[in-house]
Amino acid sequence: MPGAERTAIGIIGNQGWIDESPFAALRGIREIIHVTKPYKLVGRDFHPSDTVIKIDDKTKIGGKNPLVIIAGPCAIESREQIFKTARYLKRLGVPILRGGAFKPRTSPHSFQGMREEGIEMLDEIRSKIGIKVVTEVMSPEYVSSVASRVDMLQVGARNMQNYDLLREVGRTKNPVILKRGLSSTVEEWLASAEYILLEGNRKVILCERGIRTFETSTRNTADLSVIPLVKKLTHLPVIFDPSHATGKRDLVYPMAQAASAVGAHGVMIEVHPDPEHALSDGSQSLDLKEFRKAYARILQLAGFIKKNRL
Amino acid sequence: MPGAERTAIGIIGNQGWIDESPFAALRGIREIIHVTKPYKLVGRDFHPSDTVIKIDDKTKIGGKNPLVIIAGPCAIESREQIFKTARYLKRLGVPILRGGAFKPRTSPHSFQGMREEGIEMLDEIRSKIGIKVVTEVMSPEYVSSVASRVDMLQVGARNMQNYDLLREVGRTKNPVILKRGLSSTVEEWLASAEYILLEGNRKVILCERGIRTFETSTRNTADLSVIPLVKKLTHLPVIFDPSHATGKRDLVYPMAQAASAVGAHGVMIEVHPDPEHALSDGSQSLDLKEFRKAYARILQLAGFIKKNRL
Amino acid sequence: MPGAERTAIGIIGNQGWIDESPFAALRGIREIIHVTKPYKLVGRDFHPSDTVIKIDDKTKIGGKNPLVIIAGPCAIESREQIFKTARYLKRLGVPILRGGAFKPRTSPHSFQGMREEGIEMLDEIRSKIGIKVVTEVMSPEYVSSVASRVDMLQVGARNMQNYDLLREVGRTKNPVILKRGLSSTVEEWLASAEYILLEGNRKVILCERGIRTFETSTRNTADLSVIPLVKKLTHLPVIFDPSHATGKRDLVYPMAQAASAVGAHGVMIEVHPDPEHALSDGSQSLDLKEFRKAYARILQLAGFIKKNRL
Amino acid sequence: MPGAERTAIGIIGNQGWIDESPFAALRGIREIIHVTKPYKLVGRDFHPSDTVIKIDDKTKIGGKNPLVIIAGPCAIESREQIFKTARYLKRLGVPILRGGAFKPRTSPHSFQGMREEGIEMLDEIRSKIGIKVVTEVMSPEYVSSVASRVDMLQVGARNMQNYDLLREVGRTKNPVILKRGLSSTVEEWLASAEYILLEGNRKVILCERGIRTFETSTRNTADLSVIPLVKKLTHLPVIFDPSHATGKRDLVYPMAQAASAVGAHGVMIEVHPDPEHALSDGSQSLDLKEFRKAYARILQLAGFIKKNRL
Question: How near does any CA of chain A get to the CA of C12, in Å?
Fold first, then answer.
């Protein structure tokens, strides 16, 4: 397509993403504009209908299913702490417990999680208490061993582009929560999900958890507009984590409601029986009573929204 | 307060912000940490109760008052366009019409607004149609003249730190919508509001409209978590502009609902009778029918939320 | 240009920037990609050779001319302070003195500058001491009056998109230093320069002064790579301000050297006779002796680079 | 330390970083300010003198040693390509060859590197050609096997917070280049280095490679001011990668010179014998002749700077 001062050349008929490198280096190329996206399996072009992931008989994430709430402490700190939380949440009707056993921490001098021991507790909890459990995996080598003892896996923001890890969780059959990286674009996030789907695991749940910006009055900047945006681009479910996105206890409840209003398929909330003694992220955790109150209101609003969808 | 390797020195008893410069330059100073904020009049310390701004007999912004909706085109483009929109919105019950006469545009080669002529139209509309009008001012010299012909003034994101402009709108009696700058922190935003209050005008409405981040799939990144955050810091009302925050028509309605859920006192939405022929921001404008549908739903959700406050 | 699933439509033969709005709002448009830039006069397409701005008989900024150094305090604080600095710099051979009379400050409770009185001092200094002077203008209404009493004008980062101000400095004959906005892209920066050139003033000097990012260990993030980049896009000279870019006295000298190595046409450095008592930005100011030492080294490196250009 | 409206409480006498979580969650805490840094071994407090890492008899990185240049292709693509480059660089006197065998790529549909086969080639090159080799490791499980066949290891930006990987390279004896994460603060970067040192490997070389910001005219934003800043905080050497930082061939040479001027201990430059046919990052690679020319100039400037240090 000739122009006054430059010529546009289009590559047409391609099936899927084309690596730009061979073109980028050609002399005379001013700019390369991708029209095709760096993913295919996660896009709606080849899979227009919503992916719905069944968690248990009553709980499904995605599509038109009701908002799913995942709750629990940032880190498993003791047998007492995690069992107490699990029992409380189970009684309330929360379907999924979160709890970190392997903790990625900025400083090697911070608490690193109970690791193996924590995984054992989660396994015990799911059989004894009957709540589903999700936990983070950080290294490819632990994936299969952890996958057999928990219901769902989580890939954290810091590991969103740890491709060997993505491939490994792609080889399990567990649903995988894939958190958005701190400074990852929507396109990169979906391309990371593509790594998992390509290995055969199609049960990926995307989770927005705030991005890093210049603003420091919140821990991260919650980017809620990506929720309706991503729902157009992909068939995968999308949930929101108001605890990490804001880092402030007072903002967790209002932002959970906002996520619900904007169409999130679920919210993941940090709850701790004793936030004042939490070893990690206490300042953004609700205590059990605060959570109970918020939980009732979240379900109430979600119910209203479901009935009155535009 | 002596430490092992450094000494902390506290300045106590001060009333209000202390300029750090004289201290910053002293040799031996490693870091200066402000505890006092760079504003005083806008903070809750000296004015704990919510500021409520009366717009007309039925419309008040702030406090526990119902969500207020402001709507209209990005720019006034013709007599027909702005009158048609004003009449339509008036019929729906929208209390405030927005319409830009002076348009700040990145390129001098883009449409710059109808300027004086646009202001005249707004003045005519408010008397003939009976809807309140708000418009942006860009230069101190026009402020008093514009202020006499419109109901409310707006200071845009690009001018959030145009201090002479802030002082000038501070000398009017009109309510002022102060948009957050593209890369302004919450603290800077509130300090800019302080400029207005210091001149005597206390009717400032803060408006979040998205910040600039690395993400390019939306025009800006809507930072909704600042709404509950700012409501704790200041007594001033806070509204949200989903049109500029997202830049995408499809995201305007869901984000307006999210803002309502998170506690915004109002939302400002771009509406154009014929977005396909808009001279500015057509891609983020709703047409009249889309707006009517969204408007009904927004009021519905806002009503539900008001009844069921946590 | 038909593709498998979408069609690319090119607009060709246009002279200059096309406003995207009328196209953006058309249904069926997925994405609009600008090939033409939002500026024309500042680009090299129509003005391939470097603009060189003559300051005095020995000093020219731009093209292959030697690195120009501008120095002085952030703010004029007293007659003694500014005269002492001016005399010292004149003796060293520094051609241009900077000194702020109108100071844009985040908080209205911070020192706002000596305003008119400061301008008077600058006028006196240039006639009595014989050093050229540059100062910031913040409002259109003051521009012509200030322009007659100083040699060069500066538009600060906060006002880079204050379009009425840009137009007003565009109507003067003074060289104008246009600082890059805190979160402005290169394209926006050049489009702002276009506003000035369009009014007839072609003596614009672009000044990189750091952008706002997530990193807080420096005041801003110095984006030095834009210097060689911008030199390819525009014929205008480009200088660097290491004082504001870093906010730390220790980083000023090394970053000034880096700017010289990367091809800047000049550097602007904050110098204060007594940084420990500066009313503004003392922590990033060099004292007179530190400056003298740095100055000699900067000239030395600049000389070496000039002789050994790639 | 009592204040008018709040009380400051200091924790003194601590040796090293204190985890904030137990304090953050206490009711009544408004803000927690760390004075101690989240690292200890990498800081200058306990190790004031510069770490110097010996690469071969003539090459040392760190301290007052001459600028070290590392060069080579982004990815190893064929035996011919990497051997040709290695021989060319060896002849020029470049001490270290870079070449990626395991490539982290955003899209799973892009070229992923030659993996094992590439490592074999590097091993052969170092014995046959006698140039030192550095390559990236992406997963803990490959580290020890790769470490035995190359001279230096690299941890890429995407893996800067892959803590199991950091621990694993910390158990080798190879020098490790630790790239700064795309959106990592200086503090997080140094805390990641601490993970490596804690395992016993003190030969860490920090590498700035650009951060992610709103600016899209360069691939990343080169943050050169961190080089002098980090040199004050840590005893470890700091190098710069102008190829990834800018993503543009034309900017590589000027930014390498700027890094040298600002005090970097080394620069790492992408060189490809045939950039037009590179499978990865061709647009930011120099060809052999461009590199030879740049190399001579870089050494020349580095020599001048060494002689004329401030």
Answer: 5
